[in-house]
Amino acid sequence: MSDIDPRQVLSRLPDDEFFDRVVELMRLYHLATAQVRRPAPQEEPALRRTSNALVLGPPRVGKTELLRKVFDRLFNEGSEVVPIYYSFREPCRRAERFARDYLSQTLAQFIAFRRDDPRLISLADEPLDVIARAAAPEDYLWVRGLIDSFTRALESNDAALMVRCALSSPAVASARAQISPFVMIDNFHLLAENNDCARQVHTEFIRSLAARDSAGQSATYLLCGLRRPTIELIPADEELFDRLEMIRIAPMSQEHIEQMIEKTAARLRLETSDSTIELMIQQLNYDLFYIRALLDSSASQRARLRTFMEFERVYTAEVTSGRICHYLGAVLRDVAPDSRSRRAALEALQLAVEARDSVPIEAVIERMSEFSIDAEPVLQRLHARELLEISYGFVNASPDPVLADYVRSVYRHEIAGARRPVAGESLLGEKLKHSYRLMMSRYNRAIEAQMVEVLSRFDFQSAPASLFDQAIFETRYRSSSRVQTRRALDEEQERVRLPQIVSVNNISVSEQSGGRLFTATGFDGGIYSDANEVLWLIALINSKEPVDVESLTRIDHRLESSAREHAHLPVVRWYISKEGFTEGASERLSSMRAHRSTYAQLDLLHDYLVKLAAEEVERKPASEFELVIPIEDEAELIAARTVEQIARGADFDQEAINQIKTSLIEACINAAEHSDSPDRRIYQRFTLEDDRLTISVSNKGNVAGWMNGNAPAASAVRGGRGRGLQIIRALMDEVGFERTDDGTVLVMTKFLKRRTQ
Q1: Is the dihedral of CA 476, 481, 482, 487 positive or negative?
Q2: Residue 405 belongs to domain spanning
Q3: Scanning 205, 348, 557, 656, which has the fewest C-beta atoms within 10 Å of its C-beta?
Q4: CB atoms within 10 A of CB 63
Q5: Looking at the 3D structure of the chain, how many domains does it have?
Q6: What CATH number should be reported for the domain holding residue 116?
Q7: Spatial distance between the Cα atoms of 340 and 369, rounded to a whole number of angstroms
């Protein structure tokens, strides 16, 4: 996030290893601080309410670390929001145990926050009297009173009273200490257990979510856990959902996972290669836990990960006997504690994995019932843990390929009784064949994406005709290097006039030829009219040999149906083959007046169009973009996404992009807090020059507080005011203010550090 007070309190990863979560982190942070923002004078009291939130996402995408990072930021700021983080460590079965643990954690974290001493969080393991003695003098009396009330509840042996007293602690802290608790509950799904304790705790939590006092909510709650049971724990209450934000956490992007792998491998002194990193991401399905487990295992064995064989050896060991194996085994034991129900669970998983299609739920339960009388509850728990999916009476396998390999391995050796090979592992041979197919599939998707990008760059340009004619291209450039070819293409006289493409559709897949078929619709001549509309029919053919006449006939037959559907449009055909075309096929395409290219020509066309676009940008000394957003919750995220695209296009690195996004979000939030703008708008201008990005943020109206151009006092920063400006100055290269007739403009600049070749 920033270099300001970067103490790790609860988080486990340093900031430089916490990738791709800036927007989500800022969203949670501003949810937490919404209660203490100064509202605009025009805002109605009914609108000045904060929301609770659900954080939802697939397993192992880093939700817990995200919550811990939010805790650290709020704790280090020490403002008017106190973070409380509580994680259920096991299903809730004893009310007294839960209530004591929750109260101890809440009070210990509150006291540590008030005294700005993270070490005091460990007091949660001490008796309540010890925790009370550590409280700051101004808090001691009410902390002591709360503990005495809880002690009386324990003596009464009233489970409901114990739970209610413990869960009221954030509201008591809010009222007595005049602060705003932000309560983050992790593993909330564990309250789905069917017992009195879980039901009582769940009821009280829902009561807390709906609680209000005269000033609004007494605390903001954020719930996080397995998404399926967590959603089911929220009752169908319209008002509750109206005040409940849904924050969805997606898997990390490939770019950021690559950065994480490279950084972790460097720290572990582990040799990798680009191809094995790609394979790791695809085979482990972007899963952070699996990736870290495999990297740690490789480092502990002093193994290398430079080849597919080296990677698959480590992977096979992890799935059959390593950390991944033991983790998935523990998950399975949680779902099915006894041996018979665990056998039934494995039967269900094996059936779903091997079926490769939907299986009727009755068939799955029938197979499970041979081993357990609790087949249906076990199946529901498998669904809740996302080990498989139940939908409309059918069961489908989980999309997790690692889980599928684990299930096959366990079933093969522990149930089917297959002997392990004398040397090696049968799973290893399967994965080596699979890794080749996986990377070829990855390669094919990359070519497809490149082709779609090329079409999207069609914008009435003229391109070298040889890029659309394999025979001419090979005659001219067979003996030329790539550099020589690119230079010669610029000098070609024969040109193909490109349309502007409006939409691209994938219409079919030809399994026999390994081809994908597309339609692209657009306009010729620069005028958008029916007369100028055009249809391109495209075949992308991944054949191992040059396409012959027979294969071409099959492909052309499949394209004909689309041509007939658009008979009113002029049609252009473009065939792109990895290995080109035979002489006969080339003559056939020539008679059809169809374009024909290889993958190499497609790549050169991509480079040519990118170069044209770059030259167009270079002709403009500076590019300016304007954005206007309303002053309302989360509008700043629109600005963050906009500036990310601008900065990425300007070749800023990811660290700089995150700093720019964070600074702009801070600027928008603070502009909204301290403005009395009559039109309730924030105006932004992005000026992109060769070596910098300059962002101006303003609104119409008198602007006070942190935007007056003066640095805040240290005491104000510790109190939370002026913090936004301090963060912006730490993250941006230049920060200043300009006075205008309408108010004040904040101007931020980030210089571009060119990547070395």
Answers
A1: negative
A2: 325-418
A3: 557
A4: 23
A5: 4
A6: 3.40.50
A7: 10
